[in-house]
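Q: I'm building a small set of examples for a reading group on sequence design. Run inverse folding on the following structure and report the sequence directly after it, with nothing in between.
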């Protein structure tokens, strides 16, 4: 039914856009991350499914729409109260309509959620995160074209009029949105039409008239250029980039997007994909691990996530924090786009196990997916040394399934490419771990008759 309204909505919107007469005074200025970042969320506000500016991609835009209203019958508090009673009184309803999807009856309250329905695939879920007598603030949720916050506020001026302001702090929600906004500029003009129309209608609701047109000021904070694939893959590579650091720090308040438990319960019968990989590394003499030998080298590579192929996944984390307390921002470049996922280390182990009557020294850790990740699940990495023979192995085990994704284009991409990329990452990780271990051992000899590192001896997928 919604799709059927797209042609009419787009036509009415385009006609209104072309024939509007309100003067628009537009200017764009360079911005700074420190000055133009989104305001902090009030304490106690839920961050579940929140799509913060740090979760977006590309340039941060701080945009302010400001209009002065003369001869208004309502003061600032009365105007905002009217809007929070029913935001559709100021929405251009032939183009955008607010529908409450979570929350009680009555005016907007903190925690209420709305779906802003628009023609085309532009529906935007938002949550009310702040409310005062003269202002309200919304934050975008997963699936929105943008990632950030927007605030509407009104104030009484000394001349008996009103000043109404809409201010947003946002990045594009994903790479497709970035293309529409920054490159094709389609979404940018849609957004401008939306919020200038809201101000025009706010003037009518207040019983007054706009004076001097609408002032639109944009501060643009360009994202730092990504470093090359081989640069600092030890996790410090992009901490100098304020955008990457902010996205990483925002992971602290995010919860897991699944309920962890006994890994043996995450089975294909319950809808989980389970993968196991075992990669031979250069062997050592029998007994405890040799100082500086294959097992220790592999443990070091694994601790710093250096086994991951940076052309598939890069990691950003704070290397000075203990491994068991680590949050990691994973960056996945794909088809000219870059996706960000948050994971959290869920456990570190160093133990001797008895496996089929043989003893094996095991060191390893796992990470688990956070809210906003496209998948749900856990990835375990371990280095094994069989004490009786000296064989050394790198092992990886994963259980996963797709998370709920609002963007239909991203859902299609996951369906087409997600599984292939999963397997590609694992195979490259095994090959890279073997190669880096051999290189670190400076070409140490491998006894005759023993499989060489680089031979993938076991791949189990279900």
């Amino acid at each position: 039914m919604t799709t059927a309204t797209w042609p009419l909505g787009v036509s009415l919107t385009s006609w209104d856009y072309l024939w509007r007469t309100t003067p628009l005074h537009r200017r764009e200025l360079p911005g700074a991350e420190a000055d133009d970042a989104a305001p902090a969320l009030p304490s106690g506000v839920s961050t579940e499914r929140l799509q913060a500016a740090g979760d977006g991609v590309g340039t941060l835009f701080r945009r302010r729409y400001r209009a002065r209203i003369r001869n208004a019958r309502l003061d600032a508090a009365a105007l905002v109260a009217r809007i929070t009673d029913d935001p559709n009184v100021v929405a251009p309803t032939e183009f955008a309509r607010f529908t409450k999807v979570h929350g009680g009856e009555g005016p907007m309250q903190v925690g209420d959620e709305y779906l802003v329905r628009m023609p085309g695939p532009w529906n935007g879920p938002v949550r009310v995160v702040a409310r005062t007598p003269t202002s309200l603030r919304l934050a975008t949720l997963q699936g929105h074209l943008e990632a950030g916050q927007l605030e509407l506020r009104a104030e009484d001026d000394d001349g008996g009029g009103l000043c109404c302001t809409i201010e947003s702090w946002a990045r594009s929600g994903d790479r497709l949105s970035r293309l529409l906004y920054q490159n094709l500029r389609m979404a940018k003009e849609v957004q401008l039409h939306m919020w200038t129309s809201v101000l025009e209608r706010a003037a009518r609701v207040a019983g007054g008239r706009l004076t001097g047109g609408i002032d639109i000021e944009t501060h643009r904070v360009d994202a730092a250029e990504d470093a090359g694939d081989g640069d600092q893959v030890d996790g410090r590579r992009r901490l100098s980039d304020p955008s990457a650091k902010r996205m990483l720090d925002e992971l602290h308040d995010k919860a897991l997007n699944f309920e962890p438990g006994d890994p043996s319960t995450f089975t294909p019968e319950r809808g989980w994909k389970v993968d196991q990989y075992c990669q031979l590394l250069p062997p050592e003499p029998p007994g405890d691990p040799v100082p500086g030998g294959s097992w220790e080298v592999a443990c070091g590579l694994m601790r710093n996530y250096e086994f991951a192929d940076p052309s598939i996944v890069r990691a950003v984390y704070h290397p000075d924090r203990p491994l068991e307390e680590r949050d990691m921002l994973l960056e996945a470049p794909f088809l000219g786009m870059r996706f960000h996922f948050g994971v959290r280390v869920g456990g570190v182990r160093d133990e001797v196990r008895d496996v089929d009557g043989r003893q094996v020294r095991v060191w390893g850790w796992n990470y688990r997916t956070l809210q906003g990740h496209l998948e749900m699940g856990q990835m375990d990495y371990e280095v094994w040394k069989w004490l009786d023979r000296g064989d050394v192995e790198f092992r990886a085990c994963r259980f996963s399934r797709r998370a709920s994704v609002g963007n239909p284009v991203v859902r299609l991409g996951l369906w087409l490419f997600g599984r292939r990329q999963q397997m590609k990452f694992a195979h490259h990780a095994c090959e890279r771990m073997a190669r880096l271990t051999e290189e670190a051992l400076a070409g140490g000899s491998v006894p005759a008759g023993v499989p060489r590192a680089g031979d993938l001896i076991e791949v189990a997928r279900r």
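The longest helix spans residues 408-440.
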